[in-house]
Amino acid sequence: MSNPIIVEHKVNAPIHEVWKALTDQTEMRSWYFDIYDFKLEPGKIFNFYEPGDEKKYHHQSEILEIVPNQKLKHTWSYPEFSKEKTVITWELQPEGEQTLVKLTHDDIDNFKDLGENFSKKSFTEGWNGIIGQSLKPYLESK
Fold first, then answer.
1. Which has the closest alpha carbon to 79: 105, 50, 57, 62?
2. Contacts 24+ apart (CB under 8 A), 89-93
3. Which residues pair with 102 in a beta bridge?
4. How far is CA 18 from the centre of its chain?
């Protein structure tokens, strides 16, 4: 049974701008990761690393579902460390001039044997930082 991580933040930006930030390679590079092989198509696999020159933590994901301006769902894995995968779902809801960004990270227990850097606590802190301290200010400064 999955005990998902759920992170929600309201962003002072219209939904179409939030969607573009989540799905446009150039915009992602400004607030998220440099994902050189990202293509917004179901079944497409993309790869990226933690920021920095040391190429730490190879991430690999496969796009599972796309509902424009509403939902992006993809796997999240570390192929060098484990065959296991987790699932990330980004959901967007308009709230007037704002957008509620909800991220659900399912199956996090699949990484329980990989150590503290892959714990539920670590991922929760990471997602709150990525959305609250990176995506939100990026969009709100436009």
1. 57
2. 90/22, 92/15, 92/18, 92/19, 92/22, 93/15
3. 8, 91
4. 13
125, pLDDT greater than 70: yes
Residue type for 15, please?
I
pTM for this model (two decimals): 0.95
DSSP 44: -
Give the whole-angstrom CA distance, residue 81 versus residue 41.
26
Residue with tokens 């199956």: 107
Tens of pLDDT, residues 18-64: 999 999 999 999 999 999 999 999 999 999 998 776 677 899 999 99
Residue among 76, 66, 50 at smallest CA distance from 129: 50
Q: What is the band of 134 on the pLDDT scale with cuts at 50, 70, 90?
A: very high
Give me the amino acid identity at 33: F
Q: Helix, strand or coil for residue 41?
A: coil
